[in-house]
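Class prep. Sample record?

___
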Amino acid sequence: MGADRAASAGAARRSLRVTAAAGAGFYLFLYGLGQPVAATYALFSAVALAGLSRIPGTGRQRAAVLLRALPAAWLLVAAGTYLAVRTWSAVSGMLVIGFALAFVAVGGPRPAGAAPGLQLLYILPSFPPYAPDTLGERFAGTTTGILLLILAEAFLFPDPPTVPYRELAARAALTAERCAGELVRAPYALSPAHRAAARAAGEALRPSRVAEAERPAGPGIRSRALAQTGLASRTLLNRLTRIPAPAPGREPTQAGLDLLRAVGRSAADAAALLRGEPVAGAAPRGPAPERALLAGAATRGALPASLRRRAALVEVADAALALAAAARLAVRGRAAAAGLPADRFWYARMGAPRLWWRRLVGHAGSRSVFFQNAVRISLALAAARAVAGLATLPHGFWAMLATLTLTRSTLDATRTGIRSALAGTLVGAACVAGVLALVGTDTTVYAAVMPVLLLFTFTVGPVKGVGWSQALFALVVALVFAQLAPTTWRLAEVRLLDVLIGSAVGAVFGLLAWPRGAHEEVRRSGAALLRTAAEAVVTTASALAAGGPREPGAPPGHGALRHSLVLAESAFAQFQSEPGHGPGDGPKAVDWQAVLLTGHHTLWGAERMLAADPPGEPPPDPAVAAAVTRLADRVAGRMLLLSAVLDPRGDPAPTPGRPSDAPDASRSAPAGAPSGYFVAESWLDALLTDLERITADGAG
């Protein structure tokens, strides 16, 4: 009930802002200045970018997005005006512009939210009459409507504030500081309260639990770095909870305690930086390098338990260093890129155009859900525009609007939406016919009723569903056109016909173009991610076992792993937004974020393993090399098994329960194993823990 009340309150606030902006612009131009063209564009610009679009964030954040979108709105109105000269040119423009506007969703939630409204700003002028001489009025109306909407979003009926992602990451870093502080005091282990706090702080950073507007999903340096800050925070908290206690009867080494203190200071400095507070020194203070810890005490004669503790501390140090560096990048951008490793922070020295280009190229393929959606909607809109032009529909704009609003990413969702929309349109058409027949041409009545109807439409429609939206919006559009020109009750049947045509086009392309949406794609991309992760584990273990000279840079397969991560993350984001699907899939939920975290941990850990073992170091003893290879093979085999379970194209495989090869602290190490062996063992054990969460009952 609380969520329903919050949704209703949010819809009411949005409705008040839309009504204020759209009504003010419409009445100003129509009744104040006598310019019906400008009045039409003022009203539909506000409705498109606040009613049809769903830009996440606070009012000030949405106002900033709208201000940046204003030049794009001018270009779209101009393009639609001039391309309306012929049906073929309007259709070609719809195909290209429709794809571009839908594909810009790769830039994050805010561009994706604004895209449908921007589509409408091209659709509106792309229909006859071809009137380039009215472009000035169209610009005036569009500009006024958007500016009024910006003012309404910024100052009217503000939404409750959301917690910024930087603040969530800062809280997680402070939790890590407290955990590190407890680990330097006897009994050198975390209490249940601190373990619970670490778990809660990490879970708060999961994308599904973060307000959509606050998710760092953009292609820029700061956005990428903020996402990496959150991931490093979660990794650090997880690694702190996995530090084994010292061997019985032994005190922890001073080097280990000093490192934990450095981790705490580094986490506190990162939190201060994220919150904009003063930080001692030019940058957050990182812990001592991992190899300094290993050199802090002789390993000869050390117990395996002590070496495993040192290896766990190396994992903690690595996560703390990543957190400190990512926080600097998130706050300071490219100014903080000096000295950062090029493999982990590959984006730190790139300009915004290059990063955008990499994001676009990375999704330019049929396996990308963003690409699929852009192709689907552009083909559907182009087909609807062609039908409207060739059949000379009197109000073809409505057919396009129906296609835009009813084409979903799955066939089931499209079918359900169309049934509700047709029922709502039929009811709305009957009401329109009755109102127009009773009131006739008395525009005073329409002018008086329209604000109330606008308010009711955008308050009730988003809450009650597409059927209510279609019925009420049919009335709104009828009242608008009745004030622009004399209208009869026959407008209702035209509206019904156009919605039927637009719905049919949406259904056809929902059937032909990837009709299962992200449901199948998230399984395929998750399976591909685990396969490439398995390859990275094997190649890394082989390099560690071989020793000797190695080529500088990332080993083979790491580029493929990064690309698989991009596609899996986009598919998961789309999957969560589709009706009827959640983070899980089936009775035994799949923790899809655990799949993504496994990929990230594989990539980061593999790069760190090879960076910590300098090229030219002698090969390890055969027994040590064999032990590392065996454990890596078990991890890779586990990844391949889960990949077969997730892949929708593969042979059916039994759903694995809890793995018998889970991390085992009592595993015997080869005689004389060096510290590097335990570092690799700790990384591979951590991957087994990640894999265990993927299909655990109740996960997700």
The first helix runs from residue 2 to 32. Residues 282-286, 288-301, 579-588, 653-663 have pLDDT under 50 and may be disordered.
